[in-house]
């Protein structure tokens, strides 16, 4: 590999600029940073100027366009702090109000809550069994299937492996903790099955807690695999859109 | 007319000389007015005669200017109406027709101002920018940006640009020919004159003349102005001037020179006897000559005090009374057995149990005359935990080592490894139990210095379960599972430049390049508040010694005082010409010192936001400030490698410590103020004898009145020791309560 013996002209210009401004010590990466900045700045200005020129229905970009482009960029990116008389005026007004008295024994002295960063930025979702009229979009608590060979406790992303063989389930089911299967009626709007799911509705990894199940009617519902986004079918089905409270 | 100290008397005296067209000699006390009309020489005499020494306000001048403008544009009807309404006499306009440029444009800006209806600040700016020789089109543009153009129009066409060099060199020749004693003082004029003339040429688009002017005379200036001149050399067009706030401020503020009366008379006489008074006009406009009676100063004295971007400080700027004394400490009784907290009370009345009374404050009950009253500014009262802290403090101070030239402190250095030059700020808690570092990758890291680990408070669910009545409840609220040596705080979006622990060790402040100051809780290690106000990098922040208040200073040239429970600042300290790089509280929390890139240090009063002291003398941006523990003195360090010592009460420089060869980033006095430690980029920490430096000060009336400094060159005697590190700049120093010196820096391989 042959490294260039001479530094490119642009870099030499940068070195000269640094020398003129009296900067003698600098890391070598500074030259690259300056070159990058220059290139980005110039291309941004010229692109803006082209836009202004076409807006003014001119065929060529001329100096006025460039000036306008520079001015707009300056106001946007390279702003400068407010002028001194403005600051003095603001300061004068601010300094006239006396210092507020301090309330005693008020715990941690913080601004009102809306100005603090102490509010939670998440919301806990409540898990509920929802009965839905349509066969689609149903939420399910996590049900565990006994004796499933590979039974991850957390939902995994991946192709939906049909772990439980689907078969019909009649209403009363006598459970002895053995494997049993659940058939989920296919939803009406299963149009796009993005993954290679078999036409029979594949069951997600449902975990059934035997204690929840009485011998009586069990209402087992589960979301459709295919309804969730294709690949992530084993994601927790709870997080569908209807789980978010409508605001 | 340069603003002459002496006011009324001088004004009257000047009036007699007013036959000269120099624009001098108006019976105006108000310097603004004098200047306003001065550069329209034709208008000077009659206008001057109309203005009595009773002090005609600036409005009068502006009205006249407006009249002139209207007349110039042949708006005769408006002229009549305005004259009638304003009640101006007829003859005030007569000679004005002759002079078009000065008065007309002055009228332009005045007109703009009236139309805009701006605040009086703009009005004063208008009157300041008297020689507004800008062309008529500036009116339209000025309406869009009244500030910038009014200010920019401060430079008029004073004369033929080619002659600037001639003027300057003739002045140079004159000054070189005066007596030695006056020469040093008059040479002060060179720098501001040079800069203003150069900027005038640039503003009026005489690029080639500006360049040749610069090349010819920039080498003559003092060496400590080298950085400024380099910046100027890159400024060749008018557009470059826009947006550079420091330059704008430089042009509008007056450069202060302190010259003795004799020297001043010499200069004035010389300039007035010439026909082309361009230099005299510039001096009148842009320089403020603070005249004092007495011996002219020597070159070394002048060099010690000059160097800042605004010249020196006017005498009256340093005359306000400053309460530099310390607040009285509340007397807390040290109980014989520590658990008995009821034995404390504020007044220190002896209790029946006769616990040992240990008052930290002054023994006398009389108020120190130099100390502010307790209620001057509202301060938070002490909580029980604070009282416990104070008791610990008193106990530790009894074990303090007394330092002196013979007993130097041991220095313990904390090196930050693998920081890759990203360590930008460090702070220790007062009891030296925690150390925090602010980094260029926008993180803040907190370490425990003692073997005790850092723990977070338990979650709310767990807190419900603990026994609240138990003795060690404060230990039980901590979650053992989160114990670790260090904690990282994420939140800023830019390098963290300032960091400060609160005195009660509950909070940590950090200021960053993203323009915010963040308050972190040291119990949950989360961010509580982000204080937005500076929209530009905030270079430094500090909690007040009593907690609750904190100050921050940044690129927008102001320092702000905040309270933790207000989302907006309480005070804005505005006045610096360039970035505020360092902010420190006085030990009594009533004053804030700010050091800036304009090479001055200002002391601000928290109560009303006024600037009570201006200290000039540094030749580079100031990066370190430290108050002495007794509150009387201030030490400052800058990029020029010198430490300067200031007497706050008198407002004078009292010492100069030379020795460092690179920027000084940290200064700290020992706990009793006997030793001053300084740390610098030259990888050394030095110890100086502070008691000796502040001893036998000559602060007699003469010195205080004139501000003459007689600095002894005793840096070598005061230097007690130089301690070198292995390529680690010392960026923070801290004396523990027992007077052990801790230092911190990041190791540069």
TrEMBL record, chain A:
It comes from the Eukaryota. The keyword Isomerase does not apply. The keyword Transcription regulation applies. GO terms for cellular component: SAGA complex; transcription factor TFIID complex. Residues 226-247 are annotated as: Disordered. The gene is taf9. GO terms for molecular function: protein heterodimerization activity; RNA polymerase II general transcription initiation factor activity; transcription coactivator activity. Belongs to the TAF9 family. It holds the Pfam family TFIID-31kDa. One of its GO terms (biological process) is RNA polymerase II preinitiation complex assembly. Keywords: Nucleus, Transcription, Transcription regulation. The lineage of its organism: Eukaryota, Metazoa, Chordata, Craniata, Vertebrata. It is found in: Nucleus. This is Transcription initiation factor TFIID subunit 9.
Automatic annotation (TrEMBL), chain B:
Residues 12-21, 357-368 have a biased composition (Basic and acidic residues). One of its GO terms (molecular function) is RNA polymerase II general transcription initiation factor activity. The keyword Nucleotide-binding does not apply. Residues 1-56, 87-107, 334-381 are annotated as: Disordered. The keyword Repeat applies. WD repeats lie at residues 416-457, 489-524, 531-562, 573-614, 615-648, 657-689. GO terms for cellular component: transcription factor TFIID complex. Residues 159-287 form the TFIID subunit TAF5 NTD2 domain. Residues 334-345 have a biased composition (Acidic residues). It is found in: Nucleus. One of its GO terms (biological process) is transcription initiation at RNA polymerase II promoter. Keywords: Nucleus, Repeat, Transcription, Transcription regulation, WD repeat. Residues 40-49 have a biased composition (Low complexity). It holds the Pfam family TFIID_NTD2. Belongs to the WD repeat TAF5 family. This is Transcription initiation factor TFIID subunit 5. It comes from Parambassis ranga (Indian glassy fish). The lineage of its organism: Eukaryota, Metazoa, Chordata, Craniata, Vertebrata.
């Amino acid at each position: 590999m042959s490294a260039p013996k001479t530094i490119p002209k642009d870099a030499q210009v940068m070195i000269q600029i640094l020398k003129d401004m009296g900067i003698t010590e600098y890391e070598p990466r500074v030259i690259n940073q300056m070159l990058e900045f220059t290139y980005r700045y110039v291309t941004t200005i010229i692109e803006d100027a082209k836009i202004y020129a076409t807006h003014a229905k001119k065929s060529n970009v001329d100096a006025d366009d460039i000036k306008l482009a520079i001015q707009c960029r300056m106001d946007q990116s390279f702003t400068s702090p407010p002028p001194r008389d403005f600051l003095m005026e603001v300061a004068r007004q601010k300094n006239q109000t006396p210092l507020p008295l301090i309330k005693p024994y008020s715990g941690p002295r913080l601004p009102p809550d809306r100005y603090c960063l102490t509010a939670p930025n998440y919301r806990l979702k409540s898990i509920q069994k929802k009965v839905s009229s349509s066969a689609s979009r149903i939420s399910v608590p996590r049900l565990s299937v006994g004796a499933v060979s590979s039974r991850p406790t957390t939902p995994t992303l991946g192709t939906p492996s049909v772990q439980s063989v689907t078969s019909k389930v009649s209403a009363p089911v006598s459970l002895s903790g053995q494997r049993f299967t659940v058939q989920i009626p296919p939803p009406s709007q299963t149009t796009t099955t993005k993954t290679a799911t078999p036409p029979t509705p594949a069951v997600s990894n449902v975990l059934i807690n035997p204690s929840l199940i009485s011998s009586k009617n069990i209402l087992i519902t589960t979301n459709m695999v295919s309804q969730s986004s294709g690949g992530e079918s084993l994601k927790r089905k709870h997080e569908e859109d209807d789980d978010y409270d409508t605001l | 007319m340069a603003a002459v100290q002496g006011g009324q008397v001088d004004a009257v005296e000047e009036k007699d000389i007013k036959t000269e067209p120099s624009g001098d000699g108006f019976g105006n006390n108000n310097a603004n007015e004098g200047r306003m009309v001065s550069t329209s020489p034709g208008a000077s005499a009659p206008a001057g005669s109309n203005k009595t020494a009773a002090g005609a306000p600036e409005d009068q001048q502006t009205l006249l200017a407006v009249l002139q403008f209207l007349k110039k544009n042949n708006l005769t009807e408006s002229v009549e109406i305005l004259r009638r309404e304003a009640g101006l006499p007829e003859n005030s306009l007569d000679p004005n027709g002759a002079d078009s440029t000065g008065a007309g444009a002055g009228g332009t800006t005045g007109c703009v101002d009236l139309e805009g209806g701006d605040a009086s600040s703009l009005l004063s700016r208008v009157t300041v920018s008297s020689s507004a020789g800008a062309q008529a089109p500036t009116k339209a543009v000025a309406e869009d940006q009244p500030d910038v153009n009014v200010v920019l129009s401060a430079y008029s066409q004073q004369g033929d640009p080619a002659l600037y060099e001639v003027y300057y060199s003739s002045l140079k020749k004159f000054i070189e020919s005066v007596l030695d004693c006056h020469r040093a003082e008059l040479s002060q004029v060179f720098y501001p004159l040079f800069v203003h003339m150069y900027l005038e040429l640039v503003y009026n688009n005489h690029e080639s003349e500006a360049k040749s002017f610069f090349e010819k005379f920039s080498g003559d200036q003092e060496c400590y102005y080298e950085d400024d001149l380099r910046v100027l050399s890159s400024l060749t067009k008018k557009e470059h001037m826009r947006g550079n706030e420091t330059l704008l401020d430089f042009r509008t503020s007056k450069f202060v020179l302190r010259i003795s009366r004799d020297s001043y008379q010499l200069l004035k006489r010389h300039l007035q006897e010439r026909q082309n008074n361009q230099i005299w006009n510039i001096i009148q406009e842009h320089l403020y000559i603070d005249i004092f009676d007495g011996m002219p100063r020597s070159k070394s004295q002048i060099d010690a005090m000059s160097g800042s971007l605004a010249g020196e400080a006017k005498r009256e700027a340093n005359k306000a009374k400053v309460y530099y004394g310390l607040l009285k400490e509340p007397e807390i009784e040290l109980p014989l057995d520590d658990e008995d907290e009821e034995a404390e009370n504020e007044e220190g009345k002896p209790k029946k149990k006769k616990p040992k009374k240990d008052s930290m404050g002054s023994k006398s009950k009389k108020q120190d005359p130099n100390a502010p009253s307790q209620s001057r500014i509202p301060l938070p009262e002490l909580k029980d935990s604070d009282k416990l802290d104070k008791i610990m403090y008193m106990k530790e101070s009894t074990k303090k080592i007394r330092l002196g030239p013979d007993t130097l402190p041991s220095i313990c250095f904390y090196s930050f490894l693998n920081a890759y030059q990203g360590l930008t700020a460090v702070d220790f808690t007062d009891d030296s139990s925690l150390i925090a570092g602010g980094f260029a990758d926008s993180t803040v890291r907190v370490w425990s210095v003692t073997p005790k680990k850092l723990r977070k408070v338990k979650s709310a669910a767990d807190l419900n379960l603990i026994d609240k009545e138990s003795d060690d409840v404060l230990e039980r609220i901590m979650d053992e599972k989160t114990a670790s040596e260090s904690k990282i705080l994420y939140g800023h979006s830019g390098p963290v430049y300032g960091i400060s622990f609160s005195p009660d060790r509950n909070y940590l402040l950090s200021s960053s390049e993203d323009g915010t100051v963040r308050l972190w809780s040291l119990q949950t290690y989360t961010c509580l508040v982000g204080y937005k106000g500076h929209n530009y990098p905030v270079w430094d922040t500090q909690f007040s010694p009593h907690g609750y208040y904190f100050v921050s200073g940044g690129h927008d040239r102001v320092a702000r005082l905040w309270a933790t429970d207000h989302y907006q600042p309480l005070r804005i300290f505005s006045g610096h010409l360039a970035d505020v790089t360092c902010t420190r509280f006085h030990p009594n929390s009533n004053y804030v010192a700010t050091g800036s890139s304009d090479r001055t240090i200002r002391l601000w009063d928290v109560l009303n936001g006024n600037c009570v002291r201006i200290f000039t003398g540094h030749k580079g941006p100031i990066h370190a400030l430290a108050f002495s523990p007794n509150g009387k003195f201030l030490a400052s360090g800058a990029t020029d490698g010198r430490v300067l010592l200031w007497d706050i009460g008198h407002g004078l420089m009292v010492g100069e410590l030379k020795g460092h060869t690179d920027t000084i980033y940290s200064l700290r006095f020992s706990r009793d103020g006997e030793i001053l430690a300084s740390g610098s980029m030259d990888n050394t920490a030095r110890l100086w004898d502070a008691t000796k430096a502040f001893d036998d000060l000559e602060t007699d009336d003469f010195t205080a009145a004139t501000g003459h400094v007689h600095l002894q060159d005793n840096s070598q005697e005061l230097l007690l020791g130089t301690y070198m590190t292995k390529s680690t700049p010392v960026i923070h120093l801290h004396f523990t309560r027992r007077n052990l010196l801790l230092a911190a820096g990041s190791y540069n391989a």
